[in-house]
Amino acid sequence: MTNLKLPRRRFLHLAAGAVALPTLPRIVRAQLYLSRPVRIIVSVIASVDEMLVQFVSQWLSERLGQPFTIDNQPSAGARIGAEAILDASPDGHTLALIIAANLIQAVHYQKLGFIRDLAPVAGISRNPFVMVINPSCPAKTVPELIAYANDNPGKLSIASSGNGSILHLTSELFISMTRISVVHAPYRGMPPAIADLLAGKVHAMFLPIPNSIQHIKDGKLRALAVTSAMRSSLLPDVPAVGEFVRGYEANGLQGLCAPKNTPAEIVDKLNREVNLMVADPNFKGRLAEFGNTVLSGSPAAFGKLMMDDTEKWAGIIRAANIKLG
């Protein structure tokens, strides 16, 4: 009997293994793919993006038991970081923090093919901007600004952080929807643009709320409206542009992507972890400090949001014949 039991046990073990064999690669890829540290490529460094990616890195490292390291690859317009993620192996060990600048780059540099050559993992947050003017400008509301621009065609100047930047496109969307005649004043980055705005050398600008809120509180800049569909919790008394210009909305975007052909099981695993992160009260609180709102949902939902934003900015770029700065 002893000699018969051992082969039977082996047979049953092998049979069970044979049944499980077709699913084994999927399980291994989904649960055991982390064989080395994961890098998160960041192509634009801003205060909110830096905070966000540090939180993401820490969260995923603790949850998945493998270091998620931040690989800063800043460049003009975020192009270098975009190329780095496209060239990475699709094994889940390289991710990228995707922001609006990356989507704009995909329009300017179509060879990047940013939508079709990435695997969306998860959305993380949205951030609005705020339309501010130097107090020397007589307008105190959006309708008054539009009226002032119409009464003084070509005299109102709107600064931006550079041709083709998200701040430029946000203003061009406003210009196209209101049909006002203004002068665009592009700068090399936000700091010099803000300096000239404070000095009254330019009249208006769309800015991230964290970069302008102290100037607003100090009375050095006047906030006319935020660009999100709803008012911002950081500026509850400031209306949304859409309250005056129907249909207007412009937001930044943050989320994670992986290279194309990254196994769906790995993408889904990371998506679940990121969705748990954005539901965390501590994370929500940190984002609220910057005026951001969280995003959650499936990889497909984030991919659609990326596509919708890309098409939106592409339409503005074509209509205004914008060249990359």
Description:
Helix content is 46%, strand content 19%. Strand 5, helix 7 (166-178) and strand 6 (183-186) form a beta-alpha-beta unit. The chain contains twelve helices and ten strands. It is of the alpha/beta class and 325 residues long. It has two domains: 34-127 and 252-320, D-Maltodextrin-Binding Protein, domain 2; 128-243, D-Maltodextrin-Binding Protein, domain 2 (3-Layer(aba) Sandwich). Helix 5 (100-108) crosses helix 12. It has helices at 2-20, 24-32, 47-64, 79-86, 100-108, 142-151, 166-178, 190-199, 209-217, 264-278, 281-288, 299-320; strands at residues 38-42, 68-72, 94-99, 118-133, 157-160, 183-186, 204-208, 222-226, 251-259, 293-294. Strands 1, 2, 3, 4, 5, 6, 7, 8, 9 and 10 form a ten-stranded mixed β-sheet that branches.
Summarize this entry quickly.
This protein is of the alpha/beta class and 325 residues long. The protein has two domains: 163 residues, Bordetella uptake gene, domain 1 (D-Maltodextrin-Binding Protein, domain 2, 3-Layer(aba) Sandwich); 116 residues, Periplasmic binding protein-like II (D-Maltodextrin-Binding Protein, domain 2, 3-Layer(aba) Sandwich).
Largest sheet: 10 strands, mixed
| Topology as a string of helices (H) and strands (E) | HHEHEHEHEHEHEHEHEEHHEH
- Into how many domains do the coordinates divide? 2
The N- to C-terminal Cα distance equals: 83 Å
Helix content estimate: 40-55%
Number of strands: 10
The fraction of residues in strands falls at 15-25%
CATH homologous superfamily placement of the largest domain? Bordetella uptake gene, domain 1
Derived structural class: alpha/beta
